[in-house]
């Protein structure tokens, strides 16, 4: 992969016959008490010194990823729009900066249905963010969760479900990565002999969870399953040397995973 363009809110890479663009939706600050040791014990008092804090809180980047084949664009996750915290909702600016017209986005695929991944379907003014959208792909196990989001009612009937192991198109395959949510999915994208794993919320706090993959997140639907998925997907990325792209990896959220003893490290691309 080769970086070909960048700005304040986007970084684009040449990736086989595709262009991968990391799009910055913003950030969210969360209390350290969101971190969980095994047995759901709060991880707080022995926080390692390498973890950066902003006014005592963890700052999580919020990233989405666009795949451009030259004709149309597929978008993985959409950010939060104005549905959650004020530090998010920059996806439209990121798309404009990257010169990706919203009308070119024909497919949206969700890694899972949490608020900071799906609400970018609608702009703050209530209009559709992607007026030419033809495919809206939601993990089958989370269709009910998606349809519970009242703000997105106009999209409830448009959702098309997928399952792990399913190929979404010629380049994108869904991989099981459940735990953070019941249908949480990693997308394996291949083009020109290159592979990238767009892995959603496998990691929330990269300064900690590569070294300590046993540390979970309060909002994991099943913390033990999330730990198992994190270990499995990290091991896959390290052993294949595939690039990874993460929704909450530090901006722009793209890099490679290596094994370090019994744990892992992350090297930004």
Task: Identify the strand order in the major beta sheet.
Answer: 1-2-3-6-7-8-9-10
The CATH architecture: 4-Layer Sandwich
Number of helical segments with 4 or more residues = 5
The poorly predicted ranges are none
Assembly classification? single chain
Q: In angstroms, what separates the terminal alpha carbons?
A: 9 Å
Indicate the proportion of strand residues: 35-45%
Rg over C-alpha atoms, rounded to the nearest angstrom: 17 Å
Helix content: 10-25%
Number of domains: 1
CATH class: Alpha Beta
Question: What global shape is seen?
Answer: globular
Strand elements, count: 17
- Please provide the ordered H/E string of secondary-structure elements: EEEEEEEHEHEHEEEEHEHEEE
What can you see in these coordinates?
- By secondary structure, this protein is an alpha+beta fold.
- It has a single domain, classed as Ribonuclease Z/Hydroxyacylglutathione hydrolase-like (Metallo-beta-lactamase, Chain A).
- It is 14% helix and 35% strand.
- It contains five helices and 17 strands.
- An eight-stranded mixed β-sheet has the order 1-2-3-6-7-8-9-10, with helices on one face. A six-stranded mixed β-sheet has the order 11-12-13-15-16-17. Strands 5-4-14 form a three-stranded antiparallel β-sheet.
- β2 (10-15) and β3 (18-31) form a beta hairpin.
- The termini are close together.
- The model has no long low-confidence stretch (mean pLDDT 96).
